[in-house]
Amino acid sequence: MKIGLEIHVQLPTRSKMFCACPTDGVAPNSAICPTCLGMPGARPSLNRSALEMGLRLAKLFDCRIPERTWFSRKTYFYPDLAKHFQVTQYDNPVGEHGVFDFRGKPIRIRRVHLEEDPGRIKRVGRQGEEMSLVDYNRSGIPLVEIVTEPDLSNPAEARQFLTDMLTEIRHTIGLSDENEQSVRVDCNISVGVERVEVKNVTGLRNMERALKYEVVRQTKMLRSKKTVVRETRRFDEERKVTLPARKKEFEEDYGYIGEPDLGVYNIRAIAESLDEKETPLTRAKRLCEEYGMTEGISRQLINTSMDLCDLFEDMAAAAGTKASLYLVTDVISSNWSRIKGILDEDLRSEIIEVARRYSDGSVNDLEARRLLRALFSDEEEDTGSTAKGDPALLEAAVEKAVSANPGIFDDYAKNEKAANRLIGDVINSTKGAFSSQEIVLKVKERLERGP
Ligand SMILES: [Zn+2]
Hints:
By secondary structure, the protein is α+β, with helices and mostly antiparallel strands. The protein has helices at about 50-60, 155-175, 205-225, 265-275, 280-290, 295-305, 305-320, 320-335, 335-340, 345-360, 365-375, 390-405, 410-415, 420-430, 435-450, and strands at about 1-10, 70, 70-75, 85-90, 95-100, 105-115, 120-125, 130-135, 140-150, 185-190, 195-200, 230-235, 240-245, 255-260, 265. The chain folds into 2 domains: about 1-180 and about 245-275, no CATH class; about 280-450, no CATH class.
């Protein structure tokens, strides 16, 4: 089985790709201008920050970045496209021939290119009297498309891969949107020889479902000696099935031509001038190596926030790893939503001071937690976290749940969701004495440690 993905992510710029219209227009057709509608005399110019984000991603995937790049018109007729062509990149995209290290398995990246989004069609009205309305606010919104080679070998792997990739992408281009619905994927999947494309799937969960459905459908057809035809399908989110879409259009049908209104851009030099930050997954790996933490914990930390990782490393430098890791995965993680809004240099030093005192034994764990909670809350005790319990009790509850669930370590190794069984047991047996975040962390840590 072979799976390849085409991933579309919206770039978080303030203005559109080729004009000054804002990207956050709400009222339909309120954020539009002659340029993004392609009216006569339109004078597009490339958004520098969108170009830089594209280049940062090309660098992230170790792509070959050409000396120069340009844009092309992809011509087709559809009412969501006022100018009858979409500006995209055809030859010489911002990056080609890259690779993404997916947990030790290299997944090749065929290309990274920039393009604009068309408008949105909305269907309204009762059955038999439907009308289509079009909103051009999205017309010209900058997107990046990342195309992988068919190196993924099953739907679950594809989902994990995309999760990892999005972790890196979000950090690289400063995407704050945690909403997985903002990602659209075209999935190519072949169980036998012929390849089927499922277009425009929204979100990670739907992508995995669409792929699983195709595996079953294609396998059944092959078993009964039927031919799987090469076609484009779409995913019906309600019924959770894929259905045939329009006949496959081949790339040549679009009649790409160079976009004459935009220039040629010398991108190699720009790419070289962009600084590279440590990515979340690189950091997770380093945290494991440097501080001896488990993979589960390091992922939990980077997924919560890179600022939390910074805080942990500052604490560890002053108070040692053990005390810092205990406090970070415990009371600090469970109060993070509050801390992140108020964390300044003063609070940072106060937290570090508590960690230091806990580390040298001047306060015990209960006192350290109480001192920290007092730092985070303005008035009363934090209500978001009910972390008032004794950590020894939590540990005992986890151990009890472990012995009540024989085979849990094997199950967890096969599928991390098995952790939910223990989490549920511990939540029930501790009756609200610990926040669910504390419980999740503790259970994961226990499972990572092994039997
Ligand atoms: Zn515009």
